[in-house]
Design goal:
Helix content: 25-40%
Mean pLDDT: 92
Shape: globular
Strand content: 15-25%
Length: 261
């Protein structure tokens, strides 16, 4: 179930889509409309969302020891990380390499300190930027197969990752790649998709979403916006709040486990 590509997507989401600030005072406040994290809580949170066991990892100082017990390998820094590599300085900082010369990280509060208000006040508290030669101590790289090819029941965990999306695509009869492609970034006010984990942005919509829209009676434009989410929620019997959160993802997983949507 663990997926390096989902890790990359979740780091992109929290750094570029969600409104996340930097503060060590409330570093586990993962609220997409205005939360806070620090560098290590961000990486640990995204690892968990991507299905990885993080053990007792809580900060940069014990991240390596916990992950290397669980399928990750500590590699020397050579300037050529792979997508999904965790870039670690054991004492000071951690980020994730996204590929294409980019990394994602939580950097510093709006005050230039370790503490600040919730939400990204500067647009740079959490960010995606070019890879840089920080004094990384190592790259942590996952060594085990990340794809979930188990044809059995989905885990009803409220996290609609690659396995859930793939099953949804199978049932809707669309191409299966485990990704909802070509979406518009949510506005953070009228709707959100925090628990729809594998999403790409800036395209012409998704074949899966068009199929879903035809079933729920929405305009079939392939873009999973507030009306389509609300209609999906009505079909699934959950509160139609236009927010694709845990309750909606769990209800979807339960329905897909019945072989239907």
């Amino acid at each position: 179930m663990a997926s390096v590509s989902t890790l990359v997507n979740r780091m992109r989401y929290w750094c570029a889509v969600a409104n996340m600030g930097y503060s060590q005072a409330d570093r586990w406040n993962f609220n997409p409309s205005g939360g806070n994290c620090d560098c290590s809580s961000l990486v640990i949170h995204c690892l968990r969302e991507a299905g990885f066991d993080t053990g007792s990892a809580t900060y940069t100082g014990n991240l390596s020891s916990e992950l290397t017990k669980r399928g990750w390998k500590r590699l020397p820094v050579n300037g050529n990380p792979q997508p999904g590599d965790i870039l670690l300085n054991d004492a000071r900082h951690v980020a994730v390499y996204l590929g294409g010369g980019k990394l994602a990280q939580a950097s510093v509060s709006e005050r230039g300190t370790a503490y600040g208000r919730a939400g990204d006040q500067t647009g740079r508290e959490t960010n995606i930027r070019a890879y840089y030669s920080y004094p990384w101590d190592c790259y942590l790289r996952y060594q085990q197969a990340s794809a979930n090819n188990n044809p059995g029941r989905l885990a009803v965990d409220g996290l609609a990752g690659r396995a859930t999306i793939s099953r949804w695509q199978e049932i809707m009869g669309t191409p299966v790649d485990g990704v909802v492609s070509g979406q518009v970034i949510p506005d953070g006010r009228t709707y959100g998709r925090p628990n729809l984990l594998c999403v790409t942005y800036g395209g012409q919509g998704s074949a899966l979403i068009r199929a879903v829209q035809r079933v729920v009676g929405a305009v079939p434009d392939g873009l999973y916006g507030p009306d389509s989410i609300r209609r999906t929620q009505i079909r699934l019997g959950v509160n139609p709040d236009c927010w694709f959160g845990y309750a909606t993802a769990r209800a979807l997983q339960e329905r897909l486990n019945q072989g239907r949507f």
